[in-house]
Write a structure and sequence with these properties.
- The chain is α+β, with helices and mostly antiparallel strands and about 450 residues long.
- About 15% of the residues lie in helices and about 35% in strands.
- The chain is built from 7 helices and 23 strands.
- It is globular and about 80 Å long.
């Protein structure tokens, strides 16, 4: 039986994808699937851990790789991951920023936080927890939930790593059956799969090196690290109209020169690019002005593109405060919508259910507005991917919701722009992060 099911990583953007910059990735999946152990293995085998650090994570004479990322005392006592731990390592090819996301359902909000800015994700799947002898096996609910969240959050590259194949009787059969289950689920969910790779994080098989022991899995593809080294970082939204969220207002000059404004508006360019002479409008007051100067992060005069920090000086004094947006005026490109009513997808993270009529703070860029839940359209069943009627969203549910905002926001669909299409709902009383919101 031929069980080779390797998939090489393909770039998400054929137009010169960036595979040299530091890759920000996370590990996710169900509880005890080996996420912390995998990161520990990457750190050790890439020689990113000092000997004295290794000596401090010994248990019964053996190195406990999970302790390299589980740094909280509660994590070490309980043997679980609670918060996202970021670690840094590099190879001869590139640098990596890797986040270890918790697998417990109650900590899904931490996983969402890490995934929202990730370029790639490695979803761990523990073969020993599945009925791997069954060709129609079912995946664990948290594996499905995390995968759906990765799709919703537009994480460009998703790698499924089938772990603990050293602990099953027939690695080739287990790898073949779990791979089919993953592909079927991904096809139903409409999410692309970059690669499916067999590993043993504990033994180090096929993580950094490809030992002979992996041959019996019928896999002839690249190692996990080989795949990660060739994944592209998330491309900046430079082709979209200019949008810029004001984070800080600086008094630029006290002179009587009125040829331009005397304040610098600092922030990060969300989409498009900003150049001197460009006409912009201020959201929400609707005033317009012309860009007089553009400063980069070291105060040099340059045009600045999406993903980079900039200081913008306008040609006249305009009422602009922290939280306002500078947007491109209509120049033939599709305008960024400005509306008080939004159709959104919500990943609900609060312990209290989401109910129609409730009011939350909505954070968009650096702007806070009140948002009222008008209606819950439906809830997504993570097992069947069916849309169900619902009157509430319980913790960790995913659903479609209608929001009514106190003030209009400058938004675009999340599938077009991560920056303009994402919001966070915050409880007005407890100030807890309640939901991750994606504009439809």
């Amino acid at each position: 039986m031929n069980t080779t099911t390797s998939v090489r990583a393909e770039p998400v953007d054929a137009l010169q994808p960036d595979t040299n910059s530091a890759l920000r990735l996370i590990t996710c999946g169900s509880v005890d699937d080996g996420k912390s152990t995998l990161i520990g293995r990457l750190l050790v085998d890439s020689k990113a851990v000092l000997q004295d650090h290794l000596a401090g994570v010994q248990r019964k004479g053996e190195t406990d790789l999970a302790l390299l990322t589980d740094g909280l005392s509660a994590e070490r006592e309980q043997g679980i991951t609670i918060d996202v731990a970021y670690r840094y390592f590099s190879t001869e090819t590139r640098k990596f920023i890797i986040g270890d996301a918790p697998g417990h359902e109650q900590y899904t909000r931490n996983m969402v936080t890490a995934a929202s800015s990730a370029d790639a994700a490695v979803v761990l799947v523990d073969a020993t927890k599945l009925d791997w002898q069954d060709a129609t096996l079912k995946l664990l609910p948290q594996t499905r939930r995390h995968s759906l969240l990765l799709k919703l959050l537009r994480v460009p590259s998703v790698v499924f790593a089938i772990n603990k194949l050293d602990a099953v009787d027939d690695g080739a059969l287990a790898f073949a059956h779990v791979s089919v289950a993953l592909r079927n689920f991904a096809a139903e969910a409409g999410m692309p799969v970059t690669a499916i790779v067999p590993i043993s994080a504990l033994k180090g098989w096929n993580v950094v090196d490809a030992p002979a022991e992996m041959a019996w899995c019928g896999y002839q593809g690249p190692t996990l690290l080989d795949i990660l080294e060739h994944l592209p970082v998330t491309a900046a939204d430079t082709a979209l109209p200019f949008a810029f969220a004001v984070q800080w207002v600086e008094k630029f000059s006290s002179s009587s020169d009125t040829s331009q404004g005397r304040r610098v508006f600092w922030g990060r360019v969300a989409t498009g690019a900003v150049t001197p002479g460009q006409r912009v409008r201020v959201m929400p007051n609707g005033q317009s002005a012309i860009v007089s100067q553009v400063l980069d992060h070291v105060r040099q005069h340059h045009s600045v593109t999406a993903g980079h920090s900039a200081g913008v000086v306008l040609d006249r004094e305009v009422d602009v405060s922290r939280g306002d947006w500078l947007l491109a005026t209509d120049d033939g490109t599709p305008e960024i919508s400005s509306s008080r009513d939004l159709q959104v997808t919500v990943a609900w993270l609060d312990d209290e259910p989401l109910l129609p009529g409730r009011v939350y703070w909505a954070l968009h860029g650096h702007r806070w507005v009140k948002a009222k839940v008008k209606r819950i359209v439906h809830r997504l069943d993570i097992h069947t991917l069916a849309e169900e009627d619902a009157s509430s969203l319980e913790p960790n549910d995913i659903g479609h919701v209608e929001l009514a905002l106190q003030e209009p926001l400058a938004t675009m669909p999340f599938e077009r722009s991560r920056a303009l299409g994402s919001l966070v709902l915050v409880d007005t009383a407890s100030h807890k992060t309640s939901g991750a919101v994606l504009v439809n």
